[in-house]
Structure formats: structure tokens, C-alpha cells
Amino acid sequence: MAEKQNIISWIPAAVGFILGILFLLILDSIIPHLHLDSNKPEGLKAKLKNATMLTLAVTLHNIPEGMAVGVILAGMISQNTGITLEAAMTLSLGIAIQNFPEGTIISMPLKNEGLSKSKSFIYGMLSGIVEPVAAIITILLTSIITPILPYLLSFAAGAMIYVVVEELIPELQAKEHSNIGTIGVAIGFTIMMILDIALG
Hints:
By secondary structure, this protein is mainly alpha-helical. The protein has helices at residues 10-30, 44-47, 51-78, 85-112, 117-126, 130-140, 142-145, 149-174, 178-199. It has one domain (3-158, 175-199). Helix 3 (51-78) runs parallel beside helix 6 (130-140) and helix 3 (51-78) packs antiparallel against helix 8 (149-174).
């Protein structure tokens, strides 16, 4: 896409990727929330003063996921970026699949803290509402977005990599059975690869 716009191809990838990481780094710094690491001395349960803090942590990290879906759908709609319906569906389906364990990350601890099943479920579900909202806003801005699409795609990638490095990788190695996390990463990667090949 960048080459079609006569831009040096690696510039949008590098600039967008760094900006995506910086964006979430800044949000992490200015918005109070809980990290998903429950192995620190103070522990997740000790920190969990109310349900909104935990919900905010995952909600914060759902914003770039919604943007990623919106950006790729916007690229498909514009029809001049080479993004196919299959590519858009692959990414959307992959993000939808990983939202199930993400919702569980919120709901299970809340249930263990004494909230009812229905309230725990609602908080888990509410954390994902920002995704379709972010996607719809991105799609509505398609005409503005198309020229900067290469930057936005790499921005979304940088933001999502930040989430993995900041939240998931430390948590993988913190538990006694760290191999389970590694196996989970392998299975998740394999599912996305199959979707990409089968739908692409």
C-alpha cells in the first residue's frame, strides 16, 4: 500500500508500529487500571477494590483491537488497498475468538470475589463493547483513513504487540506451569495461521 502511494515501504511500518506502542504506553500511564499480573506481592485479589478497575484494564486493551478490525474493513471498503474480504474476515474472526478468554479474565476473578454470575458476565461483556465502537468510528472515517492506512495498520499491530509483551508474556512465565501458556500461544498462532491460509 505504501509503495502504491510512492512512500518508502518500511517507513509506515516502523512509524505506525512505534506510535501504536507509545499510544498504549501513554494510556497505561495516565489511566488508572490493574495489570493482569496476579503474582505480584500485592496480588490481584488485594488490588481488586471494585469491578470497574479490572474491567478498565481489559477495556483499555480492547481499543486497538477494535481499531485493527475497523482499519482492515475500511481498507477493504476503499477497494484500492488490496485488502480482500477474506483478509478482513480472518482478522475479525481471530479477534472475536480471543475475546472469549479475554472476557473470562474479567468474569472469573469477579465471581471469585463474590459478585453474582450475571454481574460477572455483564462486566466481562462490557469490556468488549469498545471494540465494535472503535471499529465503527474507524469505518465511518474511511475517506480520511485510506491515505494513512499503512500507518494505521502498523499502529494497530504495535498496540497489540504492546499488550502481549506488557500483559501476557510476563503472566505466562509467572505460574508454576509456564508450559501451558507456551502451548496456548502455539495453539493461538496456529489457529490464526489456519484462518489466514484457509480464508486467504
